[in-house]
Amino acid sequence: LGFQFPSEFMGIRGLTTYLQENQRTLCNTLSLPSVSPVPLVVDGWSFIYEIHRNSGLPWVYGGEYESYHRLVSVVVNAWIKVGFRLYFVFDGAYPPLKFPTLSSRLSQSHIQPSLLFFRTSSISRGTHRFLSETRIIPPLSYTTCVEALQKIRRTTDALEIHFADEEGDPYAVELAGRVGGYVAGNDSDFVVLNANGYRGYVPLNELMWYSSATTLPVKEQSDHEFQTVRKPKATKKPTDDAIVGRGIIPPDVDDQLAVTFKVYNPDTLAAHLKIPSTLLPLLGALIGNDYSVSDKSQNIQSLFFDRGLSSTQRISRVAHIILTILSPIPQKRQKHKHQLGSVMDLIDRSVNALLPRSTTLNSNEIEKIVDKIVDATLQYAIPRSERSNHGSSNAWSTGACPLHEPEFCPLLPLISRNFEMINKEGNEELSNVIKIRNFYLDAYRNGQLSPKIMDILNSATFWPRLFLENPDIETVGRSIGRPLREWGYAVIHDAVGLPYTEVEDTELGGEEHDNSDDEIVDVVESDDESGEDLLAPLKGQLQLLHGSDEGGTEPPIRVPLIQQHSRMPTVTEYIRRGTRVAEEVVVFKPLRALLSSISVPELHRRTDISTPLLLWPREDRLTVFLQVLGSDILPVRALSSEQLTVALSLRWALRITHERAQVFPSKDQDNERWSRREAHCFLASFSWTNSPADETNHESEFPPISNRSIQLMAQTLSALESIEHLSQILLLSEIVPSPACLLSGRTFHRHLTNTLTVKEPDTLPLLWEACSHGLDGAFREERAKKAKKVKK
């Protein structure tokens, strides 16, 4: 059975189904190769999931990252070869409005499958069908994908990688508008978002590959210099025999390939629904999108629609209501559409029209629903820009931001909190803050600062990646990852400042927000075909981020943050607690207090200890990093960069599990510890110990799945992620790179279950010495398996 990742790219509820049911009317089919490169902006996370879904790689062992890395390269190179110019876009920090949706998705796509796995018998859960239906994305897939893309980017100009200021969807569409291209993904939001120059949404799962020798469907040359498939009934469709591949992964054939893809354009959808394209975001908010999900017991959409209505019926009903409000039944002498006081009036009337007449909601409750719809609509706002890079090889606006001038870039305020709170009289402190801000900005734009870290900066939250683990014990996100994250939180807060979760309303610039609500415009009249943006008044509320739509030069008003030294800063972590996603507030110590707890000679050598840690020489920052991990020893320092993080991850897992067993002696805690043999198996799971022939010979083998092997892998995956993030926060990622693309979870399980013998090439003894040095007491004794009783 083909697996669909649960709710991971939902976008507008039911809109994907609606597009498929009305495909003949709503989509165009285009084909490549073309005369000139076709710009294609790719939603990074849609790409990651779609490749994993189509790859057939086993997920249950923890991830086949070397094979995944190879597949990413194959797909991207094939796309470039047929004529795409690619712009990959990855999400930045999660908007707080989306937190309820994220929590729900994590529970549905990670925690529930993990619970089902551990509650199912070993025989049943090992079947192909069960594993397909409970699939969880391996946690290091993002790191592996970005590394593969960066490797390709170093060899071609046909690929750019972008890391969005905030949510990736609006950024992708705005970028597509700048370069005159399409957006490829698995999110129906891309047929609602719109920008000047944007050509439309390409679903990744609807690509079709042909041999260049195959006669494609009849086409006509378009203005865009590539072929557009005609739609007349007389046109013959290609037979299945002509198609050599479907989906995102190109077929492995010797022939030159061609590809066809479907395009859905927002203007076409709006015309089909008979509403202005600028009101598609409102339609999406009313139907239900990722921002209108409530964490309360009652969902807004459950108030709007009968449970028996299909997604198509819901979309048609909302579109009809909007159309009716804009243009009531015309009278013979009536020349103009109904005049509305403001777009807020339109939203208010739409909400009231959708609510059942027998509703028991009072006016305050209805007003809250209207506010929720407004917030969900505003998330689609894309500021207008007169800039255009059509035909340009580079879409960057400035060195700080690809799309925005620095004063309007949403990213800069996230790394400027300390800048807002210091004296700007040209002192050394100001210079240091600016340097650190630039370091973090460059690191993020170059993919060396994870979006997970941007969540800390944006909302003082952290979302550890969840994977398969025993639901009956403490999550590794807390036991293995949190001690390292607390160091990361302290470094970030000292370097650029974190947002405080509690700020008085009077400090949030209330007057500015009040004024924006007073702006009122009339809805477009019947004879006006200018395509005026009906949501412009709502977008006025975003002036703090993007500035005026009128092109004014005044920068947005930045509200200075009040530093509250009287209380400790906190970060809210969203982790697994039992069988649900729960919030846990983490109070962390100041960096200076943490530094005093480790042995850092640099601190004793300094006469001026006020220099921020991130401005220390790299060797000194590396010393702090290794000291935090309890691994500042010569055998570790002697390792190659690709082996360093592997050794640090294993040492961290050994150390933490041993300390926990010492503090809380119990059978469960002792079971968390590693044996020497298990540690050897982990080191042998990386590709430096396997020849290509070995890997090819064993790719079809699926070792037994044991609970212990799964839990050991969960520990190391959490350690790898946490160490990667800490190295990025300390600006050490170039000398402490992630080894994710070398790891094979299946090989780890094969070693553990004795289906593959551990080999020790020349490099492994040195690696083992680094991993075990000083940790002899951390290993548990290897337990002999009970011999089966022989029947007499």
Automatic annotation (TrEMBL):
InterPro entries: Asteroid (IPR026832), PIN-like_dom_sf (IPR029060). It comes from the Eukaryota. Belongs to the asteroid family. PANTHER family: ASTEROID PROTEIN, PROTEIN ASTEROID HOMOLOG 1. This is Asteroid domain-containing protein. The lineage of its organism: Eukaryota, Fungi, Dikarya, Basidiomycota, Agaricomycotina.
